User: What shape does this take?
Amino acid sequence: MSSAEPRVGAVQRLARRIRERGVTATLRKAWSDHVFRRSTSVIVEYHPDQRPLGPNDQTGTGLSFAELRAGDAVPPLCAWMAYRAADFAAMLTQGKIGVFALRNGVAIGCAWIALDDHHDPLSREHYAVGPKEAYHYCWMVDPAQRRTNVGISLCREVLRLLASMGIERQFGVVDVVNRASYLIQYRFGYRECGRKVLHYHLLGMRWTRYGRYQGTLGPAPRGRA
Assistant: This one.
């Protein structure tokens, strides 16, 4: 492949983003991706006795699920997730558990689970995981599939898996502006626990700060926080 081909692909992606989002939004995203960005996330946690899984929750049709552990092969990935194939293989080698939502044998969503202390050197994050606890992270759903209840079905599958493993507390981090992810987890009984995570990105460098707060920072339904 010539060195010109990647540049052509980058130009085409940029042109598509400008068409879809406009110049101002594209420039704003480029600034946040490559110059400076600050985001606030909250830690949400779930206890099995908080909310039993109800039978009336909607389920994405035509889905199957695969639970992957060390030694398993990463399934075929949709185009939107394909760039993470090497990362997923590395996570399995590290002992993480991957839960994949499949449609026609192709993964269109996933979630990852750590049963031991989780450390991300890239974002400089560290989460202690105690006995009978689980940390979940890297929730992904193909944008083209997000109106087909894949996220709801995937969340239920993760809850069922961890319940079968005797997990008594599970927790994860969700960006307060990621309304869809926050509300799906809220629907299943996840609640904020008063700990926030501040992410900073500056010229390709990342670092993280932790803090405490009272009340609710995310978009919880009014009166039900």
Notes: Residues 1-8 have pLDDT under 50 and may be disordered. The chain has five helices and ten strands. Helices lie at 4-21, 23-34, 85-93, 150-164, 179-187.
